[in-house]
From TrEMBL:
Belongs to the MGMT family. GO terms for biological process: DNA repair; methylation. The active site is at residues 36, 317. Its EC number is 2.1.1.63. The keyword DNA repair applies. It holds the Pfam family HTH_18. Residues 106-180 form the HTH araC/xylS-type domain. This is methylated-DNA--[protein]-cysteine S-methyltransferase. It comes from the Bacteria. Binds 1 zinc ion per subunit. It comes from Paracoccus zhejiangensis.
Length: 351
């Protein structure tokens, strides 16, 4: 999957704690018998005491033990004690209305927590907590209950605050999505966070992580494309999408069997179909993908089409990495890209 660069470049990345190789390169320290991420906060070893590996399994096979500070065998965020404790607290009580005062009461510095969550997840802990509450309001609206009930279930004191939060997520105020519609939007929970799925009775039109900054814009474009025919609710396609995502994360589904409605130019659709042909457990560079779709000089256009994919995971844009093997930009967050590639390694081994 990935050829390591020369040791000098890797040692420079280790010294700088450069996250560019996160999930793609690991260092084993011969004097301690421990292997780490390149971003590990521990004191750096001398170059002659380093061995380099492309995966945790390679390091373990060579006799190295995982570091207890950076936890190289799990997602990067698992190496941060404050993050893991707060995520556990949120899962235990998703309805709780968190504040900075709550963080301080637990002994955390709010600014430190804010920076840590922004780095790992692209949003703050309070943003994540607010999204969890908003899901409750969405469920209430989907069942046809009154707006005030949805607002209260989402934990918002004011109707205006609930409307603003809903509009930031969906790109439309809630009343506009309660009209009769052909396409229906609903929330799907995954191990990597909430996703919004939009489907009709025939196909999946959109699948995005709820914290993606471009989600409201993408929803507006889709709404315009289909004449505003998007409401709340789910279809049989939504149910199949949720079931197949669950199988994917459980390691039981390397290929998705879903009908998709692609909203893009002819070129973009060729790129997206090319992405679907990359086997789980493998990656491609943008240049390699451009060559595979028959347009070897269109690397930039391929990268742009990749960034405009609106059906995450099912169209696996996370399988495209930098030419040097680094994890390049991913709209869902590099931490998710890292985790998705790690999940798919098991598929690659099985093949």
């Amino acid at each position: 999957m990935f050829d390591l660069p020369e040791p000098g470049a890797l040692y420079a990345a280790l010294s700088a704690r450069d996250p560019a190789f996160e999930g793609r390169a690991y260092v084993g320290v011969t004097t301690t018998g421990i292997f780490c991420r390149l971003t590990c906060p521990a004191r750096k070893p001398r170059p002659e005491n380093c061995r380099w590996f492309a995966s945790p399994s390679e390091a373990a096979s060579a006799g190295f033990r995982p570091c207890l500070r950076c936890h190289p065998t799990g997602p990067e965020a698992e190496g941060h004690a404050a993050i893991t404790s707060l995520i556990a607290a949120l899962k235990a009580d998703p309805d709780r209305r968190w504040s900075e005062a709550d963080l301080m009461a637990l002994g955390h510095d709010p600014s430190t927590i804010r920076r840590a969550f922004k780095r790992h997840f692209g949003e703050t802990f309070l943003d994540i907590a607010r999204a969890a509450r908003l899901r409750n309001g969405l469920k209430t609206m989907t069942k046809g209950h009154a707006m005030i009930d949805a607002q209260l279930d989402a934990g918002f004191d004011s109707a205006s605050g609930f409307r603003a939060a809903f509009t930031r997520l969906f790109g439309h105020p809630p009343h506009e999505m309660r009209q009769p519609s052909d396409l229906r939007a609903d929330w799907i929970e995954t191990p990597l966070g909430g996703m919004i799925a939009i489907a009709d009775d025939e196909a999946l039109h959109l699948l995005e992580f709820t914290d993606r900054k471009a989600l409201p814009q993408g929803l507006k474009r889709l709404s315009a494309h289909v004449g505003g025919r998007i409401g709340l609710g789910r279809t049989a396609v939504t149910d199949r999408t949720e079931a197949q995502l669950s199988e994917f994360f459980a390691g039981d589904r390397p290929l998705f069997g879903l009908d998709l409605q692609l909203h893009g130019t002819e070129f973009q659709q060729r790129v997206w179909q090319g992405l679907r042909r990359i086997p789980a457990g493998e990656t491609r560079s943008y240049a390699e993908l451009a060559h595979e779709i028959g347009q070897p000089t269109a690397t930039r256009a391929v990268a742009n089409a990749n960034a405009n994919n609106r059906i995450a995971i099912v169209i696996p844009c996370h399988r495209v990495i930098g030419a040097d093997g680094t994890l390049t930009g991913y709209a869902g967050g590099l931490w998710r890209k890292q985790r998705l590639i790690e999940i798919e390694r098991s598929y690659g081994v099985a093949a």
